[in-house]
Amino acid sequence: MPLFIDIHKHVPGLTEDAVAGAHEKDLATQDKHDVKYLKYWFNERSGAVFCLVEAPNKEAAIRVHREAHGLIPDEIIEVQEGS
């Protein structure tokens, strides 16, 4: 399954708890879209969030975010894992 990094460039009012809550909502929603959110990183000062996701395509990953919490990424990049 393809791997993607999605980028949210500025989430207003971002906190560690808010990111964790949004991730939990993604996990609760992902199965019906054949998506697996694996990991996330964030910068509370800038409001940036980065999500690593396995998905059949970019659109499926976006559907999960839209349905789970409405925070659509600014960009999604297909990536390959290296060592």
Topology:
Elements: E1 3-8, H1 16-29, E2 36-43, E3 48-54, H2 58-68, E4 75-79
Antiparallel strand pairs: 1-3, 1-4, 2-3
Helix pairs in contact: 1-2
Q: What characteristic shape results from the CA principal axes?
A: globular
Helical element count? 2
| Topology, number of strands | 4
Helix content: 25-40%
What would CATH call the homologous superfamily? ORF SCO4226, nickel-binding ferredoxin-like monomer
Query: What are the segments in which pLDDT stays under 50 over at least 5 consecutive residues?
Result: none
Largest sheet: 4 strands, antiparallel
Helix-strand sequence: EHEEHE
Keywords:
four-stranded antiparallel beta sheet; Alpha-Beta Plaits; alpha+beta; 83 residues; single chain; globular; 2 helices
Describe the protein in words:
- With 83 residues, the chain is an alpha+beta fold.
- The chain has a single domain, classed as 2-Layer Sandwich (Alpha-Beta Plaits).
- It is 30% helix and 31% strand.
- It has 2 helices and 4 strands.
- The protein has a 4-stranded antiparallel β-sheet, with helices on one face.
- Helix 1 crosses helix 2.
- It is globular, with a radius of gyration of 12 Å.
- The model has no long low-confidence stretch (mean pLDDT 96).
How would you summarize this macromolecular structure in one to three sentences?
With 83 residues, the protein is of the alpha+beta class. It has helices spanning 16-29, 58-68; strands spanning 3-8, 36-43, 48-54, 75-79.
